[in-house]
Specification:
Blueprint: E1 5-10, E2 13-18, H1 29-44, E3 50-54, E4 59-61, H2 66-70, H3 82-89, E5 97-101, E6 104-106, H4 108-111, E7 118-121, E8 126-128, H5 142-150, H6 152-161, E9 165-166, H7 167-172, E10 178-179, H8 182-197, H9 201-212, H10 216-233, H11 236-247
Parallel strand pairs: 2-3, 3-5, 4-6, 5-7, 6-8, 7-10
Antiparallel strand pairs: 1-2, 8-9
Helix pairs in contact: 1-3, 5-6, 5-10
Length: 260
């Protein structure tokens, strides 16, 4: 069986590569759990100075597997694992996180970038957050971080209108540091990670903590998002959106307008 998340450590850098290429790297619960495991282990490992997220074959990740959403039965979920577990962990990761985004970065593939310290993207990167289209709400603290980083209007455009942002637009909005040709993207990302690995670890950690500040307000916002997200998963709008997606048809939300 192909390993769907490949974790490797070399030269002080832990790479976490999404590798479910036949499904555009759509993330399943076991994949989330593998990422959580890698981040926790890397934070505790003296041989790891930074974490690097990679995709492959021109795709970063298509986000959460829609089939997982569609199978949600409305019962309380384990919030320490899967997508909720990763979302809760990201603000608390102690070592720098870097992402190389080539092609699709959907849903959490975009919102996780707000937690990264450096983001490199190719011109063909396509950052998309179709939460509202699926009857859901933004997650991973993006409802707080996006307006702070991008401004209210651009955050609304990304998170509510669902407008795709290419690499250059995301760079102009402050979500991406550098736009790099696809064939140079991983090399440029790993070069930056290698530079971090050579720095004094104590000074780097202390400086990063000062830059990021107290995460308590962000964690509180994540809890609020998670509660509403769970409610929305069980909503008629979400059920219609998932059914339409799986049946490859246009959803019909007209019956829900009076309830909004």
């Amino acid at each position: 069986m192909t390993e769907e998340v490949i974790v490797e450590v070399s030269g002080g850098i832990q790479t976490i590569r999404f590798n479910r290429l036949d499904k555009k790297n759509a993330l399943t619960r076991p994949m989330y759990d593998r990422v959580i495991e890698a981040l926790l282990a890397g934070d505790d490992a003296t041989q790891v100075a930074a974490h690097v997220f990679l995709g492959g074959n021109g795709v970063f990740t298509a986000g959460n597997d829609i089939g997982d959403f569609a199978r949600h039965d409305g019962k309380p979920r384990d919030l320490s694992s899967g997508a909720p577990g990763l979302i809760r962990l990201l603000p608390s990761v102690r070592k720098p996180m870097i992402a190389a985004v080539d092609g699709l970065a959907v849903g959490i593939g975009t919102t996780m970038l707000f937690h990264c310290d450096l983001v490199f993207a190719s011109p063909r990167a396509s950052l998309r957050t179709p939460f509202v289209d699926l009857g859901l709400v933004p997650e991973a603290g993006s409802s707080m971080l996006a307006p702070l980083r991008m401004g209210q209007q651009r955050a609304f455009e990304l998170l509510c209108l669902g407008e795709p942002f290419d690499g250059q637009r995301a760079c102009e909005a402050g979500l991406v540091n550098h736009v790099v040709p696809s064939d140079e993207l991983e090399a440029a990302t790993m070069k930056a990670a290698a530079r971090l690995a050579l720095k004094p670890p104590g000074a780097l950690a202390a400086s990063r903590r000062l830059l990021r500040g107290d995460p308590s307000a962000l964690l509180a916002q994540i809890e609020k998002e998670t509660e509403i997200f769970a409610e929305r998963l069980a909503s008629g709008e979400a059920k219609e959106a998932f059914s339409a997606f799986l049946e490859k048809r246009q959803p019909d939300f007209s019956q829900f307008r009076k309830q909004a």
